[in-house]
Fold this protein.
Amino acid sequence: MKKFLLFGIVAVMGYGNISAGVMPATDADFDSWKVRFIEHMWEIYPAWASSVGYHKYDNLLIIPDETSRSHELDFCKQQMDSLHRFKIENLSPGNKIDYHLIENQLKYASWNIKELKAWQWDASMYNVSGSVAEILAGNYQPLDQRLQSIKARLELIPAYYDAAKQNLVNMTAEHGLLAAEQTKGGMSVFSDELEAAIQKSGLSPEEKKEIHSLSVQAVASMAEFAAWAQQFSGASTHDFRLGEELYNRKFEFEIQSGYTAEEIVRIADVRKRDLHKKMTQLTLQLWPVHMKGITMPQDYLTATRMLIDKLSEDHVAPGDFQSAIEKQIPDLVKFIEKKNLLYLDPSKPLVVRKEPAYMAGVAGASINAPGPYDKNGNTYYNVGSLDGWEKEKAESYLREYNKYILQILNIHEAIPGHYTQLVYANKVPDIVKSVLGNNAMIEGWAVYTELMMLENGYDGDKGVNSKEASPEMWLMYYKWNLRSVCNTILDYSVHVKGMTENEAIGFLTREAFQQEAEARGKWRRVSVTQVQLCCYFTGFTEICNLRDEVKRKQGKAFDLKKFHEQFLSYGSAPVKYIREMMLSK
Ligand code: ZN
Ligand code: ZN
């Protein structure tokens, strides 16, 4: 009886508080505290929970109003107090990282509500279709049961969008337009996919009818919200730029780097100049091969640009885009095995699919991996389709993702980039590092593997025995790497220094050699995201630095395969913490 009561009190007042007066000291205490912390976190963030494969709260939809925000703030405060009862110096290295990650998450979440206030200006954060699509596509429960969860969410969708409209007192035009587009795209989840699932289900005719009419009501709310966002975006005067103070704070929370934003931008600037120099040398070498009879311009950036444009003509036909990607995946696997670069788990299949409509509008290709609770789920490689694109637009896109860049894209997104990293991350038994994963580590790893594959000779044309990538491949790689370098410079320049759209397009097309279409797309992205564009280069820089440090320390004993596997074995933790662990061994 006593035990039961105690249990009840813990559940009511404080999610994993250790009873008062007892100083929790051991790693075992911390381990069980973490489990309770995450469990409660999912109740606060049910959509996030569904997306990582935790389905207990599938039937919850949080109405984004004052009540839920103050509930979230209470949660952050209580959990922070509870966390601070542990002395970090008494914890194991792995738990120290988790302590930092949880502390960062809690601070970030309350800063978001109180200072950043994206809920007042970012209309695109209100989106109900993504998590419903995931529940529909999941195979973790019988369809009928999943439909019951969806039904519970459907009932709340009108209230959800009402609250969203109330919140958006400072909506930016850019986020308004994005929200309109994504919300319209997501409506097909309810009208097509959900309808098909209802028909397929074993529910009674009455239940089917009920879900159907709730789904019609949901689509109507979404259409209304989309029209509202579109209309008000025209009248918006709120600048999407964060400004220095908010930007620097967001950088700290999101990137969790050993560098400040300003420092990494300075490093990016040095790297940019170094890449320009390397590319000039390759241009001098390759000009006579590819540009016979054409006078090389005096201006090296212009000459390099011309050569890149020429090499970009080598690309697949629009209809072959997806199949070309599919064909390369097994070649990458063979190369990595042959060169002994890292272990790849053959039991985890990768499925290439057309990008779902609700994801449209931001990136061209991306990975959807099963979350930490969903280890047997499919990993999807979402590829944006060129169906219905105007000829000119498709041509520009395909030149951007030409023969060379398409290979690098596959390395980055799939193998041994994101896909491989996430397979490793899912093996880490510790849930905190998986769910509070660090984007700079994740993107940094993908960007690092591009360089690493080329250093080891990867070049699709040359097969698995290739010893050296061609100078053409290197030139195009440098161009690609310049993209993450310039992403960093761009993001900071736009959000902190007030760079304009024209300046940004000029910068990206001239100094990063981008096609007009990509530069426009990047502008769109920088106007609806903040800091995220810095994670690529920051993570890359920190991983390259770490590899150098480990090499120096181990000398002849350094083994690249071991370095990679050890690096990936900690889960998606910030590189600065992985560094501490790897160097302390
Ligand atoms: Zn062409
Ligand atoms: Zn990436």
Notes: The radius of gyration is 25 Å.
